[in-house]
Amino acid sequence: MELFEQDFYRVESNNIRVDFPAFFALYQPLLHSDGAALYATLYAESRADDFAMHSRLCRLCALDIDEIQAARERLEQFGLLKTYYNALKGEYVYRLAEPLSAMKFLSHAVYGLQYQSLIGPNEYERSKSIYAPSQLKLSGYKEITRKLDKEALLSGLSEHEVKQFLSNKQEEVSTDKSFGFDSEFDYQEFIKPLTNLAFPYEVRTTENLRFIGRLSSITRIDMNRLREYACQAINMKDNTLNKDLLMKKVMQNLTVPQVSDPYLLDPFTFLKSKQNGVEVSKGSRMALEYLVNDTYFSSEVVNVIVEFILEANNSILNLNYTQSVAETFARENVKTREEALFLVKKLKKEKQMKTKREVKIHQPTYTRYDEDEDEAERQEALRQFEKLRNSEQ
Q1: What DSSP line would sit under 173-230, residue for residue?
Q2: For residue 166, what pLDDT band results from cuts at 50, 70 and 90?
């Protein structure tokens, strides 16, 4: 399942105790530095009692969202983390598990063997001497610990009680309007008037709702019209959402409002206004979605970037060139419209200076004149002229 920075998470540690010096020395070779850092960060985050976005984890660990997901999966594989996901809310709950003791880790049939393979026998023995010193030998002793009789304990429970305990009841929708998706879109307001017949439950997936929320954020389309177009884009035969059709309906019915400050328009409407109302192409839409979804620029800054690209790239907005320009703005740490306009002015000036540079063009050798030969020919022509004039007199 794909993880997004906008997805919310919460961490539970259940008061586990972690010997972090031993944890890093033993687990890090198996988890890699990303996995060890994520575990330590999640442990620290378990103090919070509310949800936060995964973008916070990305910043705390200095990792991108794909690296976070890969590190999380390593933690799960080594029994250090259990992950629970609520598809309706787009929320994750991470439940940390306590690392094995040094002795159990080093003697583990899988962990210990892999650890020795990664760091070598000599370093393995050194780690063992530091973190798992010799304990009392129990040779000659027999364990007589009494085990829990699970069958006897459960025998008094009725079948109804067991089924009720094991059943997973659907939780009520959270009061959080954003569902952990796009915070600017009211998902509850969108779904509330829709019946199962008009907008089947099978269509209300995380992927589809996230797409609808992003489409609304980009286009600022009226909620009622968005519902209408979303219902029209459903394939009732297999209960799927035709995203291309929904996008097409929204884009065809976008109107460009008259505003005194065009930079305040949403990016899609701004682009459409720059194209004199012409429908936005698929390539331009991909480039614009990159600026809106994959960068941290505000809508006003995105509009300045779009305007600059259209002027500099023959009115063409494509993904590759857009990514290149966005990287330039990111390196300059542009955050406001004023900073973006200043950078545009600077880039235009640099381009003008480059085109104004004089390029010296040398005449080809076959167009040059030999000065001595040319002067001799002129003198000869002058003598002939004087001779002809004297003879006429």
Answers
A1: PPS-TTTTS-TTS-HHHHHTT--TTTS-GGG--HHHHHHHHHHHHHH---HHHHHHHH
A2: very low
